[in-house]
Write a structure and sequence with these properties.
Blueprint (H helix, E strand, L loop, with lengths): L1 E4 L5 H13 L3 E6 L4 E6 L5 H8 L4 E5 L19 E3 L2 E3 L3 E7 L6 H13 L4 E3 L17 H14 L3 E4 L6 H7 L2 E4 L7 H10 L3 E4 L6 H12 L6 E5 L17 H8 L4 E3 L1 H5 L5 H10 L4 E5 L17 H14 L6 E2 L4
Parallel strand pairs: 7-8, 7-14, 7-15, 8-9, 9-10, 10-11, 11-12, 12-13, 13-14
Antiparallel strand pairs: 1-3, 1-4, 2-3, 5-6
This protein binds phosphoenolpyruvate (PEP) and manganese (II) ion (MN).
Length: about 350
């Protein structure tokens, strides 16, 4: 239920209202608007009597029932688009960001080289997995803590904030010590213990869509992070499983406008994991941007042929530079601006 307060409500009345919301078994989430303050009262669907009760309280302007289960992600509770700020750029509400880097951190030379050139070509964030969720237990699992340290070194040199994946709840504290943004991968998108732990970390969360998740389930996964009091979530469409085998996954471009109609959170596209093959990465990135994405996360490797994971989809430097050119040309057509990396 959404409670809209009257303009000019006194602090005392506002606090009494919050107390009453809690007394009735709801958790209040406050959103300050220009003239009104909105309180999302999160809990069981309210009875008509309870809604009447709140309507009659001092300082209450309107009480609105929200039927969507993903309340905190919804426009009703948060009518302004969420914008995430980083030292190098912003995402959301017309601000576009590019995160780029290798699939996994493999060595000092590799991550530093990638960080330097992605920055030079205009990316605002460095990606790189230190903990890799691999389908096979025998495949490269990532450098772990050493990988995090290398990412921190790359950030110190380039100034690029770092996004890296956290694969289990017990790793959240460690990864949050180093990362600017916690990535939750497709294979963990409904690991509810991990979503809660990431929500509690206070770090922004880049949440990938699970490969078999509906958009409602995706929004509910985001709701887990938001309900821990962490408002900084980016949703990433990275391709879903379909019968088509020509690409690794099928990029669901419709996810962008559909999610935009349902949520205030920034929506990004990951063309790399959808494509699986480098030649499709740029067209898919551009399709996502044309559909309204607020950012992209792209895999690029100084020497893709030697990559220890996802070799076929990682762009070499020149192809990444071409992608950035194409992105720059398209953005003005969709009224978006790419921040200039500091
Ligand atoms: C990744 O970003 O390297 C990754 C494993 O992505 P996803 O979880 O989308 O497969
Ligand atoms: Mn990858």
């Amino acid at each position: 239920m959404l409670i809209v307060t009257k303009p000019g409500i006194s602090q005392e009345t506002f606090e009494a209202l919050l107390d009453e919301i809690k007394r009735q078994g709801y958790t209040p989430h406050i959103s300050e608007g220009e003239s009104h303050t909105l309180i999302g009262a999160i809990g069981a669907p309210p009875t008509p009597e309870l809604m009447e009760h709140f309507r009659a309280l001092p300082g209450v302007d309107q009480v609105i029932r929200i039927s969507k289960p993903h309340k905190l992600a919804s426009w009703e509770v948060h009518p302004e688009p969420t914008v995430l700020d980083f030292p190098t750029g912003r995402t959301g509400n017309g601000h576009f960001m590019v995160a780029a880097g290798p699939c996994g951190v493999e060595s000092r030379e590799q991550i530093l080289a990638a960080a330097r050139y992605v920055k030079r070509h205009g990316a605002q964030m460095l990606r790189g997995g230190a903990f890799k969720p691999r389908t096979s237990p025998y495949a490269f699992q990532g450098l772990g803590r050493e990988g995090l340290e290398l990412l921190a070194e790359a950030r110190a040199e380039t100034g690029l904030p770092v996004v890296t994946e956290v694969t289990s709840p017990d790793l959240v504290d460690l990864v949050a010590e180093y990362a600017d943004v916690l990535q939750i991968g497709a294979r963990n998108a409904q690991n509810f213990a991990l979503l809660k732990a990431a929500g509690g970390s206070g770090k922004p969360v880049l949440l990938k869509r699970g490969m078999s998740m509906t958009l409602d389930e995706f929004l509910m996964a985001a709701e887990y992070v938001l309900s821990e009091g962490n408002p900084r979530v980016v949703l990433v469409e990275r391709g879903i499983r379909t019968f088509e085998k020509a690409t690794r996954f099928t990029l669901d471009v419709s996810a962008v406008p559909v999610l935009k109609s349902q949520t205030h959170l920034p929506i990004w596209i990951d063309p790399s994991h959808a494509a699986g093959t480098r030649e499709y990465v740029t067209p898919l990135a551009l399709a996502g941007i044309a559909a309204g994405a607020d950012g992209i996360i792209v895999e690029t490797h100084p020497n893709p042929g030697e990559a220890k994971s996802d070799a076929a989809q990682q762009l070499p430097e020149e192809a990444f530079a071409d992608l950035m050119q194409a992105v720059r040309r398209l953005l003005p057509a969709v009224d978006k601006a790419l921040a200039v990396s500091a």
